Amino acid sequence: MAGPNTPHRRQFLQSSAFAAAAFATPGLLAEQLSQTPRLTEGPFYPDNLPLDTDNDLLILNDKLTPAVGQITHLSGRVLDMKGNPVRNAVVEIWQVDGNGVYLHSRSGGNGERDKNFQGFGRFLTGKKGDYYFRTVKPVPYPGRTPHIHVAVNQNGKRQLTTQLFIDGHEQNARDGIYRSLGDKRSLVTSKFAPLEGSKLKELEAKFDIILGVTPAEA
What we know:
Layout: H1 7-14, H2 17-20, E1 71-79, E2 90-94, E3 120-124, E4 130-136, E5 147-154, E6 157-166, H3 176-179, E7 189-190, E8 193-194, E9 203-206, E10 209-210
Parallel strand pairs: 1-9, 1-10, 6-7
Antiparallel strand pairs: 1-4, 2-3, 2-5, 5-6, 8-9
């Protein structure tokens, strides 16, 4: 039986058929897409990155115990405003664990942090601009509705920082950042829907990220 960090598992995470099936063949669009809104990075970008920064946040290094939480498969594409895929962009995500604690020394309740949750991950987009993460469904913490922080880097430069929200969550209406988006909320909101056929009650969420001008275009 393959261990958590065998080549087979890493290959699956980097080229998951699950993720690939979600992507339509990209092409130029007649009209420009709406750029993904920029949102605050927040105070809890990890101040001490884990040695393991891959795209599976449920398994940390060589540990066998997974993180606590509802397994969520997050996938999407990074596109320019004409719908062309952005290749070799580094997508980063970071979020609280199942206890509402970030991978940060100043995050509240740090002593209760889930030591099995990676808290941060990276993925390099392929030729279709696709990315994929396996994580847990985000939970609320004091002052904020559940969300996942997302950043895109290209050629060593930060191109976009934003946040992804759960469609229909009751705390969205009370979240100042979410409310400030107005009619752009739909651009950073996704349904965390049951994954068909999963016996573990896993979820899937789709989030396409639309960039403005990239360094290559500039």
